[in-house]
Design brief:
disordered N terminus, elongated, 884 residues, alpha/beta, 27 helices, seven-stranded mixed beta sheet
Length: 884
Amino acid sequence: MAAPRFDAARPDGRETPIRRQYEQLKALYPNCILFFQLGDFFETFEDDARTVARVCGITLTSREFGKGDRVALAGVPVSRADHYLALLMEAGLHVAVAEQVSPPGKGLVERVVTRVVTPGTLAEPGLLREKENNYLAAILHGRGGIGLAYVDVTTGEFAATELTGDDAEVRLRTEIERLNPSEILEPEGQEIDLPRIGHRTICPSWHFSEAAARERLCAQLRVLSLEGFGAADHPFALRAAAAILHYLDENNRRLLPNLVDLRIYPASTGMTIDGATRRNLDLFRNSRTGRIDGSLLAVLDQTRTPMGGRLLRRWIGQPLRDRAMIEARLDAIASLVQHDDACIRLRNLLGQIGDLERLTGRIVQGLAGPRELLGLAAALRTAARLRDVLAGLSPTGTAGGDCATASLAVLLDRAGAPVFDPCLDIADLIDQAVAPPDSGTLIRPGYSAELDALVETAARARQRIVELERVERQRTGIKSLKVGYNKVFGYYLEVTRPNLRFVPSDYHRKQTLVQAERFVTPILKEWESEILQAEERIEQLAQEIYDGLLRRIAAEADRLRATASSLAHLDVLAALAHLARERGYCRPVVDESFDLEIVEGRHPVVEAHLAPGAFIPNDCRLGLPDQLLMILTGPNMAGKSTYLRQVALIVLMAQIGSFVPARSARIGLVDRIFTRVGAQDDIAAGASTFLVEMMETASILRHATPRSLIILDEIGRGTSTFDGLSIARAVVEEIRERVGARTLFATHFHELASWASTLPGVGVFNMAVREEGGEVIFLRTVVAGVADRSYGIQVARLAGLPDRVTRRAAEILRELEAPGTATAGGETERSSLLPVQIPLPGLGLSPESPIDLLNELLALDPAELTPLEALNRIWEIQRRAGRR
């Protein structure tokens, strides 16, 4: 974005001081919208103003800067700046905020850019979503690897990873989709295909310099070496992390003190979920509406704290593959389910905690106000009550776990929560130092002897002035005389006009009113000066004490963060326990097998939107040797897609350590869930619906392992029937014979299901329906066997297609199903397929003659064969040709 100018010279050739000031600041931040404070407004000019007016929906006006010189102008109130900043951030813009830092009155007000606000560096509470992390990421694609780092400047989470190997870019995309960063930093000249997530910012290449990376990180983390962070073999990750520090230093260095630790992590420790699967399973947003409502997150998120909500989102985004950690979470939830009364008390107390994690960040950055500190003290005292509730819980036996000998506090520790420390010493410090918000003072009396002495001095001076009114009335005889004060003239003695003749000679006129005169005396001026000096010093000292208090609390940030993490873990586990008890979820058995057994499973999201007991449950059994792959047929609207998704969601919930919606479940650990569900295109990339379907299927076949779970819904429907059927069959063969993954495959190709029913390790099922009086009733039950019809016309009628259309469709269907159907040319298809002998050498059709086999193939009459018979004949010819 070019730097907007509003003509640095006036028509008379001279430059106004305020214009010069604006131009100087704009020159420092040419690629940003400049918010230039003028009193109670942030003003923008010329191109900036046009952009702000368009994005924020405000009026574009103009302002005169010198005689006859007008410039485009758009302004927003300082008090509502956060609202408009949020709109500009959503548009991917950067905003430099130039604030007034000197009082108005004499000469040009001094203005400096106090911060640059970008989508990934938001720290103001009003600009953030409470239960979502706001990540800033950096990516470096180097020779031999890809470095990825990310940070949440509000919580201090700072992590990096390095990706190597042929699939590094694929894994990078998956990790970016997991993190969903608001902004991604890249060096100049880097070209890498990334998901359309977040706003991409190009940075100078030297930000990613290897030479400066270690030095920059060591300085930030206050260490001599990065060996203790496990960073020795991750040069690209370190360079990406250092680039984030450079970026924050340039744009808002006040955010840097919150980054005190760097976590180097492997990107493949949890279950892998790619972007397509996140969308297809509606993990975080409903794919149809784009809203959280209707997603798995909306159902599971019963958390009572913002930090608990963020932790749950991370758990859903990366389920575990570590069985011990899964069991630890399940043990903790089981204990909370058993102690239902205690769980209710815990959740009520958690609702009083607030966002301890982000509040700690604001304290470290020096931004927290007195109310926030008092809120912190209250939260810590509530945390102490939580600890007492936990301590009072006796060990409880729970089937499937080992919590019979462990208290809930121990189970929380096993589930990854840090040691619980309510930090009551910090709460005591705050309560001793900070005055209540309605007291009119910042520091509580008794905390600072020096401050108390100044307050006492000012109070005595005020009391003398109050007494001065009585003394002066007696001295002058003016009974209506009164002492007053205003911010412009200070203290004064007011005398009404009828009494002016009684005014003593030592009264000096200060202000004339219609009905009175105001005066000062030498003693009044002396006492006023004493008060003003004391008040100025009181304000200065109180702020110094408060700043020192913030620094003392910030020094305990590690403890506060650990407490916040403990509370977040407790919040998530208590929320999942509450959900399990409320919805009748069961504890799953998670083991190292390759089996999947779900009895009376239910879709957690669909069930939540129905009346209790209305959802019809279904079983699922997958695993060797009996049933590795399940083919599911049935009409549209019968519930195939719901069934497929519910199985995937139950597996995912089990591996985040949650109870699941089923009567019982046994889950052999899954390393990755793949889904190919629904019809989507990618017009921007020039990809049709069918091409997207094939690309996603290809990715599944390349990356799935025997530990994976594959969900395929109607593969091959986007092309001709025979092409689609052939592709679907080939995919089934590939999964069964080579991939070996547990698979659910829904299809409308009944011929495919009939063929698959003869294969070992493949089960064929359908969604049961019943016809009554010409109407179709969907029973929502999975039963063995192949569906005999698809009921497409009946479903079209239910969807509201006009009766004349559905009646005509039924007529056409009867014609198409009749033998010897005529082609558009009036002849049957059979007449165009006369046998012809054409020698085609080199086809590798031995041991039988290629000519004989080819002629046999050409002699087949498709009009006389069902699709299944045609496939079987082709299969037989290929076998005889030596291809099978």
